[in-house]
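Encoded backbone
================
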Amino acid sequence: MQSSAIFPLFYLPPVAWFADLKFHRDNFLIEDAEHFVKQTYRNRAKVYSPNGPLDLIVPVIRGAKVHTRVRDVRISYDARWQRLHWKSLESCYRNSAYFEFYEDEMARFYEQRFVFLFDYNLELTGWLLEKLKLDVTLNFTAEYTREQELDFRMAYDAKSGHQDRSFSSYFQVFEDRKGFIPNLSIADLLFNQGPQARFYF
C-alpha cells in the first residue's frame, strides 16, 4: 500500500501548499503529532502589501516546554493581532476584485477567539478549501513518524517563499510596483481571482 503524503497545517497557507494538496488529495494526512516549529507558515502568512511582501504572524504563548506538540500550542492575545491582521488584509486587498465577495465570511476568523493555533488553522483551512471547491477529507496522523516518502512537513520555506518552483502569474493589486510575487498566501490568489482561483492549480 502506498504511504500517505504528510502535510503540516498552516495559517492562510501559501499557494504551493494547496497545489501539492490537490495533487495528493486522494491519499494524504495532516500532521498533528509533531512539535511546533517556529518561524514557519504554521503561524504566519505572506501577503502582498503596498510596500511588497508582508508577514502576518499569529503570536503564540511560549510555555516552559521547549517541545510543544502542535495541537497544544495556544494563541496569545496579549496584543490585538486579529485587528492588525484584518486591517492589513483590508489595506492589501480592499481594491482587489473579490475582497468584498469573501469579506463577511472571512471576518469571523478575526473576531472569534480560538484557544489553540491548530484549531484556528484547521477551521480557517476548512473554509478556504470550501471556497476553492477542493473536495477533500482532512484526516490526521496517529503518531509522529520521522521519515516519510512523501513528506511535506518542512517543504515550505517561509523565509525564501519557496522560489525554487515555477508559478503562473495572475493579476495582483500592487503588481505595478513590485511585479508579480509568486507563492504568497492563498488569500492573495483568492482575493484577486475569486471563484476562478480553483482553476489555478
